[in-house]
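Notes to self, ATP-dependent 6-phosphofructokinase:
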Amino acid sequence: MQDTKKFFENLSGAGKSIGVLTSGGDAQGMNAAVRAVVRMGIYVGAKVYFIHEGYQGMVDGGDNIKEASWESVSSMLQVGGTVIGSARCKDFRTHEGRLRAALNLVQRGITNLCVIGGDGSLTGANLFREEWSGLLDELVQSGQISEEAAQTHSALHIVGMVGSIDNDFCGTDMTIGTDSALHRIIEVVDAIMTTAQSHQRTFVLEVMGRHCGYLALVSALACGADWVLIPEMPPKDGWEEQMCHKLSENRADKKRLNIIIVAEGAIDQNNKPITTELIKDLVVRCLGFDTRVTILGHVQRGGTPSAFDRILASRMGVEAVLALLEASPGTPACVVSLCGNQAVRLPLMECVQMTQEVQKAMDEKRFEEAVKLRGRSFENNLNTYKLLSHHKIDAELPRSSFNVAVLNVGAPAAGMNAAVRSAVRVGITEGHTLFAVNDGFEGFSKGQVIIRWQPRLCETLQVCIWTTLPAKHIDKIAEQMRIHNINALLVIGGFEAFESLLQLVDARSRYEEFCVPMCMLPATISNNVSGTDLSIGTDTSLNAIVETCDRIKQSASGTKRRVFIIETMGGYCGYLATVGGLAAGADAAYIYEEPFDIRDLQSNVEHLTEKMKTSIQRGLVLRNENCSENYTTDFIYQLYSEEGKGVFDCRKNVLGHMQQGGAPSPFDRNFGTKIAAKAMQWISKKLKEFYRKGRVFANTEDSACLLGMRRRALVFQPVIQLKDETDFVHRIPKEQWWLRLRPLMKILAKYKTSYDVSDSGQLEHIVRLRAKDISAI
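result:
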């Protein structure tokens, strides 16, 4: 078979100059993107320039345009905002301003621009590119540059990255800063819930987003808000009465608080603004509830970037440099986007035009079209919200004869409760009778089954923290399935859940009770289950690791030349160590999947010794708990301490079970909510498909599936087919996508390495992109 891999070593930046700027509103993660562009650019031999204060700095020139060094982007990964500054620039909107900007770039040999900003900033960059040759002609005619200089710098290449907390740019599932803004919102909502519950209050929260309701929508999904108001889905006439009815019903069900989330651009069907004060007055007047208003404001822009935003920005920054290296004079300006779990390049103006069409559709009251134009991520979030907020009194609910059991298996993972809540609500809406099983299959065998789970009585399922698999109690579990007439199973968990489902499928030939639809949702901090790129709980764990690494690095701010050795969990899977290392700016990460020996350890010590001679006198090394039987955390700590004696000192830290605790991140809440809703809909479909002669009988491969994210889409995969993809000895998939991120971590830490860029270089089109993978997140 012909090897189709392509490596970036064939791309050289020698003789090229790249300018990087941040423009428009700031967003957490911009600094991570700047850092990635600078380091990747220098790595490939290009000169990289900071353009301070956005387009204003480009117009003004002088000290605003400075060459960047490797060390100049140190310690900025964990800093929010943008350290190179951003400013709104009226001058750049004029022809004269762009002429001055062109002169400043030509004088420094810059013909490659990486612009991090919103749609306005990227539109300005594209206009600048289109005018470039004409601007150079004017500069030649005025004698400010030579004909030779004009020919040498005849083409300007533009690559954009979208930095905006609003997530209002079409063509990408997430913009840099959105996840961090969601963190700020959810932190506030979680805090408000405790005080609201104490006093039985209603809180009306206004979140940012301009004319886009993404932040409001996703935060409402993540915190289980009672009502949400967004520009893309104006409430129908009579919404005031419906909202008050729902708030009143929730109070009648002994819920002590109400949360209403309002996007700052929320409107009614007549395009009139819906404000927080209007909502407050309505609730007080109609219900007499004690109501408070909280406007979050610019706190949503501030703070440390989340792990997701750091990884997203780092991946996009590297991809942006690759795009600039591969650009030819005829290459259109592109924007680096996220589609599912994959970085893609899209024509910049296609994305800008579609973004502008959204506002036009909303102005013309074509709201359904506006939702579709927002993209599949927004549309799927909205559909999930509608599904979960579908409110009918018991008498109006459809009735089915199907019983569905829900259980958690294995170690706890943040976001499991969100998945259970979503599955139960959708299941009851579908008319099924929901059964909760406490303590996993161990509890199932003992009959620890709660009958008739109501949507508002979604108490936390107890998680089975033992590795007891169903095979040990298969007779008793089959008996309980028969006693309660269970027609379908939803299993939420990690590798133990995967093995459990395989055992149940294997037992179908002996027990007809297991011939029912079964679905598994991957929930484990280790992210070690075959069939999915991501698992519920992984993001929360990554954030715990990154926050701890930030604090540990900060503790060395007053101490020179110190290296920290940090042990992470994950079993034999190196996901947490690798991706956590990329997000925290680690110098190395030792994992089982990439064997290492004493020579590699020695090489890392030498690399850190060289690093200590620079202005960056601090090192961070992550080690997966099972990366090596002999090279333990203590061994590596002692080796580094001995070999680094006189150059640097060492400290070690075992993070332990703190990686499993804490409040679920917005990503995990949202991911768990969406895949659980999708899984329950799949179960409903299969129940109808396999219902014959008064009973459910399902024994085909596709009746026992794992629902996972694969690159761009959520996919149901038969667990039997995933057996061949799994290393059962080490409890990891045989192939793991994130191993492709390891070279990024090494490059950004200044190691010479090989990087497969086979997936890069394909300029896609936004219309074609939306037409496929419609079931993805």
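- The first strand starts at residue 17 and ends at 22.
- The chain is about 40% helix and 15% strand.
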